[in-house]
Structures are given as structure tokens and as C-alpha cells.
Amino acid sequence: MAFFKKKKIEKDESYYLASQWTLMWRKLKKHTLAKISMVILLILYLGAAFADFLAPYGLEEFSSLYKDTAPTKIYWSDEEGNSCAPYVYKLKKENIKGRDENGKLYMETVVTEDTSEKFYLTFFVEGCEYKIFGLIPGNIHLYGLVNEAGEVDRSARINIFGADRYGGCIFSRILFGAQVSLTVPFVSAAISFVLGILLGGVSGYFGGWIDNVIQRVIEVLSAIPSIPLWLALSAAIPPDISVSAMYLYITIILSFIGWTGLARVVRGKFISLRNEDFVMAARLAGVSDFKIIVKHMVPGFLSYLIVNLTLGIPGSILGETSMSYLGLGMKAPATSWGVLLQETERLADVAQCPWKMIPLIFVIVTVLAFNFLGDGMRDAADPYK
């Protein structure tokens, strides 16, 4: 009994002596949706980081034979119905002659499976060369196809999510698109977060003419509709710049228009806190303004800041996706989830090739995961819960 009582006392002491971040982590681990969201986001970011290895085909690998084709059918049994190693057939073009309703002859080219040879699904197959993180060279891909002789054969393709209008593998392009769609919004949200706290804090803490200038800038930016602002800023980007430069410009554009709301809230919080007794005591003690802001005022509404950051990221994801979808962001041959969704502009394309909507599922899942994670972090940071 004494042993368990001692353990209880040690547990109580560790709880009361724990830091704020430790207490937040303990609460967050009890939030089921937040934990599931963290796992989903971890998988997505790992997929983006190792896209070159996980994707069976590179961004520049296309096949006109496979353009707009449905997800590849994988067979798990032979012609006699016996189970065997998974395999696929490559496609071939056939010219079919016939007569229409008026009796006129016509010829139609259709794509069908060539059942004369099987191509087996195998793991760790050689393919196009790449460099993970731009440093680690390799040419091994997670999966691919080999012919009946066990040799790598690129004449057949396996597109588990179907192919786009150019014959590229949608699954591969989703992985490569995640490198843009998951990192540009994260960086832009982080920059907007810093700008919002910095400018809103300066505005609310010092007041006076600094407050007036910052608030007028916020009002001007907030009065401009988002899409016309995207158009104006995107028009200033040269059309022939590199992918990395486009990445930088999109980050700047999203950051430029995303900090105003947070700055307004931070300003209001600082105005209400700057005359509190603990702030006045810190000033009388000779504490610098920077330390008062960072160590005494910002932690007072940390839960709101955390939620704003976690909700700002999905907002930026939707912003990058919208920009690329409208042709204002990334452009082919570069890819992002928004670029992939450009192929769903027409209802006829969606009706004929519904698998092209798969990138939208990744956008929705990512946004929901960030929202649930933000909800869990808000509850964990709330001292009254």
C-alpha cells in the first residue's frame, strides 16, 4: 500500500511541476481525432518526402497509349481460376469498323488489353533515377512491373489511380504534387503567423501613429477581394521562371494576404493586456518590451494562436490549390494537387474520367486532419479544460 501511495505522490508532483508544453502534450494524447489526424498527416508528409521512391513513375514519364485510361485492373488469379501472383496486361490500340444509324461506315480506335503477355507486380523495381532530398541518388521504386522473364519492362504501366490527359500516372503525380501542396501552405502559414503576431503585437502594445499606420494597411488589404489580388500578384510573376522560383513566389503571395486577420486579433489582445498589473510590474522591474511581449503577454492567449496556425495551414492549402486550379500558381510540367484538379474543369471530363477527382479526396482529408488537430491542440492549450 505504501508503494502505491508513493507512486501516486510522485505522479502528482510530476503533474504540478510539469511545463505548459508537457501538460498540453498529455491532454493532446487523450484526443482521439487529433491522434488520428497526426498519423494521417505524418503519412502524407512522409509520402511527399519520399515521393521519388514511392512513385512508380517520374514526373516526365508519360505514355500516349494510356492517356485518360481508368485505374489499371490487377488480376489475382489465372485463366483457370487458380490464385497466383498479381499481374496486369499492357494496353493496345485496335481499329474497329462499323456502321452508324444512317448506314455510313466509320472507323473507331479503341484501347483494349493485350492478353498475349502478363506483367507481374513486383516490389523494389528499377526505374528512373532520382535524388531524395536532392542529395541521396537512387533508381529503385517501391513497386513496378516485370515481364514473364523477370525483367523490368516499361512497355506496360500500372496506374492504380488511372492516368491523366497526357498519360501520366495520377498516383505518382499526387505524391509529387504533395511536395508542393503540403509545403507551400505550411511555409506561407508560418510566415503569416509570424507577421500577424509581430505587426499585431507592435500595433497593440505601442499604439499611437504606429497603430494607425498598421491598421490602415490591414484595412486596405482586407478590402481587396482575394481572387483579383491573386490575379494582380500572379500577373507580376514572369511566365518563364523556374519551378523553385514559382514555389517562392506562391509562398510570398499566400503570406502577403494571410496575416491581416491574426494581426487584428493580436492587437486587441495586447490592448487589453498592456495595462494589466503583471505587465506594469514587469515594466517597473526593468524588463525589456520584447521580453514582456514574448514571455508575459503572448502565452496569455497561446491556445488561440495555436488554433489560428493549425487552421491557417488548411486555409493556405485551399489557397494554393485554388491558385493552381485557376492557372495562377504551379503550371505543368510542375505539379500540385491544384494542377491535377485542372483536368476536372469540365463536367464532361468528370463524367468520363471520374478517377481524376481522386486528388480532391487528398485535399479534403488533409484539410480535415489539420482542422481536427487544431481542435485537439486548442483543447490541450485551454487551461480551463
Short description:
With 385 residues, the chain is of the alpha+beta class. The protein is built from 16 helices and four strands.
Write structural notes for this entry.
With 385 residues, the chain is an alpha+beta fold. Helix content is 55%, strand content 15%. The chain has a 4-stranded antiparallel β-sheet with strand order 1-2-3-4. The protein folds into 2 domains: 37-49 and 180-381, MetI-like (MetI-like fold, Orthogonal Bundle); 56-167, no CATH class. The two termini are 31 Å apart. A hairpin with a 3-residue loop joins strand 3 and strand 4 (136-146). It is built from 16 helices and 4 strands.
Question: Mind sketching the topology for me?
Answer:
Blueprint lengths: L1 H16 L2 H9 L3 H18 L1 H4 L20 E3 L5 E17 L5 E28 L3 E11 L23 H12 L2 H23 L1 H16 L2 H10 L7 H14 L3 H14 L3 H8 L4 H9 L4 H24 L11 H5 L5 H6 L5 H24 L4
Antiparallel strand pairs: 1-2, 2-3, 3-4
Helix pairs in contact: 2-16, 3-5, 3-16, 6-7, 6-9, 6-10, 6-13, 7-10, 11-12, 13-16
Salient structural properties:
MetI-like fold, alpha+beta, 2 domains, 385 residues, 15% strand
Structural classification: alpha+beta
Q: Please provide the ordered H/E string of secondary-structure elements.
A: HHHHEEEEHHHHHHHHHHHH
CATH fold group of the largest domain: MetI-like fold
Mean pLDDT equals: 79
Q: In angstroms, what is the radius of gyration?
A: 28 Å
**What does the main sheet amount to?**
4 strands, antiparallel
Shape: elongated
Query: How many E strands?
Result: 4
Give the strand order, joined by hyphens, for the main sheet.
Answer: 1-2-3-4
Distance between the termini: 31 Å
